[in-house]
Amino acid sequence: MTRAGAKPVSRRKKIRLTPRVALGLAVCLVAAGSAAVVVPSLSDDAADSRTPERDTHTVAAPKPTSRDSLASKDASDEEWDGKVKILGDGSTSYTGPQPGRLKAKRLKPGERPPQFVVFSWDGALEGDDHMFSRFRRVAKESNAHMTFFLTGIYLLPKEKRNLYRPPQHKAGDAAISYPTREHIRTTLEQLGDAWREGNEIGSHFNGHFCDKKGGGDWSKGEWTSEIDQFYSFVQNWKTNTGFKDLDPLPFDPTREVVGGRAPCLEGQKTLLPGLTDFGWRYDASSPGDFQIWPSKKNGIWDLPLQMLPFPGKDFQVLSMDFNFLYNQSDGDTEGDPSKREAWRKETRDAYIAGFERVFHGSRAPMFIGNHFEDWNGGIYMDAVEDTMREVCPRKEVRCVSFRELTDWLDAQDPEVLAQWRTLDPGQPANWKQ
User: Fold this and answer.
1) Do residues 20 and 46 lie in contact, with contact meaning Cβ atoms separated by under 8 Å?
2) CA 324 to chain centre
3) Residues 381-405: pLDDT tens digits?
4) 372 within 8 A of 337, measured Cβ to Cβ
5) Is 98 or 75 the better-scoring residue by pLDDT?
6) What CA–CA distance (Å, rounded) separates 291 from 32?
7) Spatial separation of the C-alpha atoms in residues 400 and 266, rounded to whole Å
8) Does domain 19-46+66-71+83-420 have CATH number 3.40.50.720?
9) pLDDT band at 284 (very low <50, low <70, confident <90, very high)
10) What confidence tens digit (pLDDT) does each residue in 333-381 have?
11) I need a surface site. Which of 9, 130, 303, 363 has the fewest CB within 10 A?
12) Where are the domains of the chain?
């Protein structure tokens, strides 16, 4: 099988950032002919100058509850008795099967598959710009579901930061900002509503460490600790925040979190071996691949970011907003305003070109990853919204979460999937009409 496009290599470049970037930033590999970029992190104080509220509530230390919960589930979704079950300290609950989740069906022999598109978001914080709520609305209006990769410490107040014990770092350290208490509240509200609407809540882990002492240097046991703590922050947000007026999240994270994306797309080699302990079914941490049908690594579906045609260029670009930022304004988040409209169109056109290639070709699922950021005046948010509104309502297109896609892949004939995996992105199979 032949594939076109430039493969990224590891070469570091300095990126110019504003303090706004520190909240929710994931660092990504850049397909710019030959460049890969790592974004320097800012200190917590740089992006959060607000004084935390005084909190005298009891502190809940992280506990490895996730694997115990997985082992002691009392009923499957199909056996749900219709009663809401409040879990732990009341931070989470079990309210039955998720409403609206796509039901996976096995294709008939020769049947043409739908065109799946997955829009995913790293960090999943509802900040002052209300990006989380904006794209929930766009998804509903476009008949789409999405995946929100939650950063665990976005539910942990800054004054409780020492509850976080990051691998290879001091207690409380993080490469991103801890949220304000107001943003924890708004994020909790968004998480519950997003899940009720059929969207997936996945994991973006916690401290967002990259490079030296980051995920690429962590052992399987250190990744296990990071995941245990992610669950603890979700399961104990009421104790940790002292918020008593908010309802529990309407889902049990030990049931619903079945995948994640590692910060900086680093560490998959040691991350994967431990994921089955948590019941995870996929990982979206690969640094990028061409648009082909997914396969499994270590029994886990590998769902990487993808290489897309860059309009008017002789290389391809990774399907995430930061990579367009790098190619268009050399990583400057406040690039030339006179060029922004052209950059927005260029980004949107790249997404559409990647979509059209597989829609009329192999029908391989398309993956788009983004951050809730206003880089270059918010043009990357606008490009994603334009793309979602254009492609998701189309006939034979299913804009789904990674979990829904994983359900569907597991329902198919493995031999058929293996045959589709040999197709180039633009190469259609002999589908039955």
Assistant:
1) no
2) 18
3) 999 999 999 999 999 999 999 999 9
4) no
5) 98
6) 17
7) 25
8) no
9) very high
10) 999 999 999 999 999 999 999 999 999 999 999 999 999 999 999 999 9
11) 9
12) 19-46+66-71+83-420
Cβ contacts of 327 within 8 Å, gap of 6 or more: 30, 32, 310, 317
Please give the average per-residue pLDDT across 26-43, as a whole number: 35
> Residue 306 corresponds to which tokens in the numbers above?
């993808």
Tokens representing 410 are 């597991």
What is the chain's mean pLDDT, rounded?
84
Q: Scanning the structure block, which residue is given the tokens 């998959």?
A: 268
pLDDT of residue 200: 98
Whole-angstrom distance, CA of residue 118 vs CA of residue 281: 16
